[in-house]
Amino acid sequence: MRRYCFALLLVSVLFSAPSHAQSLSADEVLEKAIVFHDPNGNWENLNTTFKVVMETPSRPKRTSIIGVDFPKQGFSLNVGQKGNSYAYEFNRGSCEITLNGSEDFSEEEAEEFQLNCERGNFMKDYYTYLYGLPMKLNNPGTHVDPKVYNRTFKDKKYVVLKVTYDAEVGTDTWYFYFDPTTYAMEVYQFYHEESKNDGEYILLTGLEEINGIKMPKTRAWYLNKGDKYLGTDTLEKI
Q1: Spatial CB neighbours of 159, under 8 Å, sequence gap ≥ 6
Q2: Residue 7 within any structural domain of the chain
Q3: CA torsion sign, 37 to 231 to 148 to 194?
Q4: Which residue range(s) make up the domain with 69?
Q5: What is the 3-state secondary structure (H, E, C) of 155-217?
């Protein structure tokens, strides 16, 4: 009889985590994911610098030094590639651009390196969004589907949130995949038009702790259609 009771208890323990995850609301899943990645709520007041190394099959390695100072609305990006470096500096709305340490560069160089404030703002939004996940899913204009999805991706089961945005924020549909036990974010995926299976998915491996925030160490990018590999970026402390 004791063995029978122990067996029932073991089964209950083994299956309690997934069943509990299935019973959570989308808001509760997001809250647990944020607690995992940013347990002390440091993102909103982040003031730090980190490095991202991007490697792609068809282009030379690119190293980016990213600085954020959210309390002062500051952001900096210094990119080194092919023996050149260019930098953007944003401070409370102002925008400064340099190429190889100089603010004096030609129109041809500006075109070659895409040196303009519009591009700089795009890169600022890109880095602060992706490294601010899943905390950024609480931003205005972001709509988390109240339905919690359960999917298997690359032979692993996940709790999944579907996210859409106001038109001025973004037009893509995103899916965020969380481990059903720890709620660590391990995959995200987006579609421009889901019925066409376009867009990309990104596999997240490892964690790098930056100012108490657990950020993905490595992100590998693939096309949804055909699983074509696009590149990998790696986060490093400075």
Answers
A1: 21, 22, 24, 29, 148, 149, 150, 177, 178, 179, 180, 183
A2: no
A3: positive
A4: 44-130
A5: CEEEEEEEEEECCCCCCCEEEEEECCCCCCEEEEEEECCHHHCCCEEEEEEEEEEECCEEEEE
Tens of pLDDT along the chain (238 residues) come to 444 444 444 334 334 444 455 589 999 999 999 999 999 999 999 999 999 999 999 889 999 999 999 999 999 999 998 899 999 999 988 999 999 999 999 999 999 999 999 999 999 999 999 999 999 999 999 999 999 999 999 999 999 999 999 998 999 999 999 999 999 999 999 999 999 999 999 999 999 999 999 999 999 999 999 999 999 999 999 8
For the chain, the domain total comes to: 2
Which residues are 143's β-sheet partners? 164
Q: Are residues 184 and 206 in the same domain?
A: yes
